[in-house]
Write a structure and sequence with these properties.
By secondary structure, this protein is mainly β. Helix content is about 5%, strand content about 50%. The radius of gyration is 18 Å and the shape is globular. InterPro entries: Peptidase_aspartic_dom_sf.
């Protein structure tokens, strides 16, 4: 990477979320950008264009426990601006069937796995993804507040997502930081009382959930039966710049730049 950080523009897809224009094996497309995605993906159409014959199986699970089985492609090279990464594998997903009717076609989904080993800052409110250098990383975190995070490698190690620790009276709850969640924060029923909301309520509830002194999730919350402790989306993240060191498993938050 160059001495200056690489700033990649994100696009807002109405009713869907953020997207990033990249080339995969020379094919230009617009991909959903989602920190909760796990394993970067191409659609069957794009797989055919880049000469991939899907094979095997990669299994993942949505937060609600729904099992998702996908076939895989072997290594593919992604480029965006001056950034290039070779994904050891990508999955093949018919993405459009999960999106609202009338959504313009997307070429797949990009997750944090593509940026493994790098430090990135996600400015969802500004529609920017910043690929930090060593120098810009140090400058960035000087004015940010460190949060406790851990890297999650599901799907036999192919996926990469990030959970943040939420202090509770019984110990830390671990909740996914998810730019693909455009709705309320999701709280698992098994930790609801520990973070001040009620299990058994179908309607959104007000949530005030400290992550550390000076950093509090204030959002509407929905309590669900989840296979993780919670899912924190853009209702919180749009108010913060989120920096993730995907090599060392560290994270920081700073008030959103205007």
């Amino acid at each position: 990477m160059a001495d200056s950080p690489e700033v990649l523009p994100l696009q807002e897809v109405p009713g869907v979320g953020l997207a990033l224009d990249v080339t995969v094996d020379g094919h230009l497309g617009r991909f959903l950008f989602d920190t909760g995605w796990g394993v970067s993906a191409v659609t069957p159409t794009v797989a055919a264009i880049i000469g991939c014959k899907p094979w095997g199986r990669v299994t993942g699970f949505r937060a609600i426990g729904e099992r998702l089985d996908s076939q895989r492609c072997n290594a593919a090279t992604f480029r965006a601006g001056g950034f290039q990464a070779k994904a050891p594998e990508v999955i093949v997903v018919d993405l459009m069937k999960f999106l609202p009717p009338g959504t313009k076609p997307l070429s797949g989904g990009i997750g944090l796995d593509l940026f493994a080993g790098h430090t990135v800052t996600i400015q969802s409110h500004l529609h920017r993804l910043v690929l930090e250098t060593s120098a810009s990383r140090e400058a960035r975190i000087k004015t940010a507040q460190e949060i406790t995070v851990r890297l999650v490698r599901d799907a036999q190690g192919a996926a990469l997502t990030v959970d943040v620790a939420v202090p509770t009276a019984d110990g830390p709850a671990w909740m996914e930081l998810d730019t693909g969640n455009n709705g309320p924060t999701l709280i698992a029923a098994h930790v609801a009382d520990l973070v001040g909301v009620k299990a058994g309520e179908d309607k959104p509830q007000p949530l005030t959930m400290p992550l550390r002194p000076g950093v509090t999730v204030r959002d509407a919350a929905i309590v669900r039966d989840l296979i993780l402790d919670g899912d924190i989306g853009r209702g919180f993240l749009d108010h913060w710049d989120l920096t993730l060191d995907l090599a060392q498993g560290k994270g920081w938050l700073a008030p959103a730049q205007q």
